[in-house]
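Customer ticket, subject: "Can you confirm the structure for Beta-phosphoglucomutase?"

Message body: Hello, I'm evaluating your service for our small team and ran a test protein. I'd like someone to confirm that this is what the system normally returns, since I don't have a reference to compare against.
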Amino acid sequence: MDLKGIIFDFNGTMYIDGDKQEAAWFEFFQKYAEGKYTVKQLHEMIHGVNGGELLKMALNPELTEDEIYKLTEEKEDIYRNMCLNDPEGMNFTQGLPEFLTELKERKIPFAIATASAIGNVRFYIKHMHLDHWVPVENIVYDDGTFLGKPEPDIYLLAMERIGLKPSQCVVFEDADAGIEAARRAGAGKIIAIGPKEEHKRLRLLPGVTGVIQDFRDISPDILKE
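Agent reply: Thanks for trying us out. I re-ran your input and got the following:
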């Protein structure tokens, strides 16, 4: 297998923020859809899907782009405030800085494919210095011009951004929809990331070739394995 580069999902992969994402959506839906969905249903809808598609699915498929933008920003304001209120929690996943440093030293290309919109990307750049680790041009985010996960578009764009074929890329992803997007894109290897209690389930997802809890036991040698 000719693996040469890496594509990372961001939320839940490079930054473990699932608790804040869920809490922000739950607070948002308490206002706009109270009692319409169970906690389990919301949990299943939230992960790996871009905000616009989620709003159409959960509230109204006829929402206009302007309405989607305003509602999304309202939810993201809740989320960003939660992040700022937990400054000690605004850290990259354990082992990730060391892994990224090794990738840079070995000149291995990598990019991010995130369902986040530009507002959150700017937030991560400002408060987590994301651009220190990943060139801004290699951060592919939801700009509304392509279908979100589980469609493969965002991964195909990220792979193109670093000049590699899908079969040459390893993808790190936490969400079921994102894993399916990477599989549809034709990624050479898909590594799922999640807590230990999720590992058995993640291993059974189509396309998954490995499962990790964090990046402490990962090295660039994964491209050779």
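A couple of notes from the result: The chain has a mean pLDDT of 92. Residues 65-84 form the longest helix (20 residues). Feel free to reply with more questions.
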